[in-house]
Amino acid sequence: MITHAAHREDLRGSNQPKAVAIGPLHRWLLNNSFAGRFIYWFSFSLLLLLATDLNAQKIIHVPGDAPSIQQAIDGASNGDSVVIAPGTYQENIDFRGKAITVKGASTAGATIINGSAHGPVVAFSSGETRNSVLSNLTIQNGSPYLVPDAGGIYINGSSPTIQNNLIQNNFDCGIGIYNGAPLVQGNTIQNTSQQTQNGCATPTPGAAYAYPARGTGIFMAGYSRDGQQAQFIGNLIQGNKTLPPAIQGPSPAGMYLADAGAPLIKNNVIARNQADEESALEIVGDVAPIVIQNLIYGNVVDESNVWAPGAFFISAVTIALTGAAFRNYPTVIANNTIVDNTYVGIPSINQQGSQLYVNQFYDHVQFTNNIITAPGSASLINCQPSVTPVNLPSFDHNDVFPQIGGAAYYGTCPDPTGSNGNISLDPLFASTNTNTQYPYQLQLQSPAVDAGNNDAPDLSAEDLSGKPRIQNAKGLSLSIIDMGVYEYPGVPIPPPPADFTLKINPSSVRVVTGQQGTVSVTLTPTSSFQGSVALSCGTLPATVSCSFQPQQLDLSSGVAQTAQLSIGTHKVVPSGLITGSHTKGRRLTAVTFLSLLACLLSILLFVPARRANRRLYQLLIIFVTAIILSGLSACGITFNGFPESYSIAVYGKGSTEQITHQTNLGLNLLP
Known about the structure:
Blueprint: H1 4-12, H2 24-31, H3 34-54, E1 59-62, H4 69-74, E2 81-84, E3 87-90, E4 93-94, E5 101-104, E6 111-114, E7 122-124, E8 133-135, E9 138-140, E10 153-156, E11 161-163, E12 166-168, E13 173-180, E14 183-185, E15 188-190, E16 216-223, E17 231-233, E18 236-238, E19 241-242, E20 255-258, E21 264-266, E22 269-271, E23 274-275, E24 281-285, E25 290-292, E26 295-297, E27 300-302, E28 317-321, E29 331-334, E30 337-339, E31 342-344, E32 356-360, E33 365-368, E34 371-374, E35 381-384, E36 394-396, E37 399-402, E38 409-411, E39 471-472, E40 491-492, E41 499-505, E42 508-512, E43 516-526, E44 532-537, E45 544-549, E46 552-554, E47 561-569, E48 578-579, H5 590-605, H6 614-634, E49 637-638, E50 645-654, E51 660-670
Parallel strand pairs: 1-2, 2-5, 3-6, 4-7, 5-8, 6-9, 7-10, 8-11, 9-12, 10-13, 11-14, 12-15, 13-16, 14-17, 15-18, 16-20, 17-21, 18-22, 19-23, 20-24, 21-25, 22-26, 23-27, 24-28, 25-29, 26-30, 27-31, 28-32, 29-33, 30-34, 32-35, 33-36, 34-37, 35-38, 42-51
Antiparallel strand pairs: 39-40, 41-43, 43-47, 44-46, 44-50, 45-47, 48-49, 50-51
């Protein structure tokens, strides 16, 4: 006996795939009604949505969702955020390579991670990238060990983002960076002090710059090998002290970068740090820094209690480039204000360059638009190359003004005052009160106002206080940038009008009659052009058409956009001869041409035969006809209705700015 199920199987055929076994409810939902099928697929989609949501980025609250910060990090996945409630947390945390954000729920002062002298407070040593973010936290009381070697934040072979934190009261270095390229932005790094003799040491003991950093705010040794460069932007680095008694070797206090690649040091305030040498900033080794618009003031070199007082050249800023991988990179020192950095201790013949000491391969160093001034008997800038041959550094539009006693320049750098816009005049600061938010701003009558070089490399769009750069404060015929970190308010340079460029590639095209050719039309926005641009062709011959794909391009993204222009041609059956569009002489219609030709032929044919040989008449007819055709062809008249070439105008019209640009496309027609 054959069952109904077997009968249905026979009807389907043995080669048909068998149905997947499903439950009776599923079978009813799928087979018995539209509503059932809708409910089934809706439920299935909802389950998929719920499953996807389980993997979505999440926020882990501490201590609400996890009792400690490290437990929250361990439970987080890439893209998650760990948000920490205000309070003090006795922890030492490690990001463990995760691309997550760890941040305080409020400002940095409200959420504190206290390292309790158990190593670095925060560690990045597993290849973290800029997607690993630490922000809005107070990082304090980290004590360095030999491995790892840092105080507040330890970064090794990683490039995280350290943003808007208060990093304070740590030992040996506030941030220690080894072979990385972090973004360090908007932080305050303060009150770092010495705890051990070794400190935050360079990774290559015995190298030229292997001495350790003890009490340094930011220490960096080595650079990332992935091509990314470290960036130090908008930080306050203050009150760090490195004064080791009876310990051999100098130790910078503010920032110390050794073999650091090509870091960007921009818009930082480095103030009131105290060291036995290089009190504010030391950059040495294989490095080509870009140092832009930093305010460096009130730093002190104190050699009164070190192992060999007076043995070194003293300065607030030292740049000593040994050269290697970054030997030929430019080192740019532009629009900085370096002022009132001082020296205390035992007098020595080596005490020159109180503000700036330039050493080693300094031929690629460019000083532009800086203000450098201080009291004291020492010179302000000291150049001492220890390798030869080498060219001099360049000085362009700087104000280097010794207030009392000392010289502006010393050593191998000749005094450039009076050339290339360099001056040596009192900058006339509006206030030297360092308790204000923006000290050392300029008065209107300052010789540094409207006196810089607008072509300086890496200029900022805004000054240190956020005012637009390049304003016309003194009513000059041309707006000129001020020297130093501030711009005196005046009339800013108006931004260039929004615009775009229109280009065709290739600029000409050859098309066989009856076919079509294609070229690219590229629109590139300039000066923040916003909106769309419509494309069109100018007047076309009757047998030519053009089309764009797309017809309109949106340039709001700020990047170039491309459309395809198709030029089509079609054949016509001429009723006579027509005139080409590029005829320069008198235009003749087809009717006129045919009438003249018929008249001439009639005269020649009806001349009496006895007056000449008929063969001579025939040759004369051919000759005259050829002359007429040649003349008409020179005027642009042809038999097939097409001139040999056209110049077609292509237009781009902006939808909002009402800007129109034109370029021409050469069209060569082939039969």
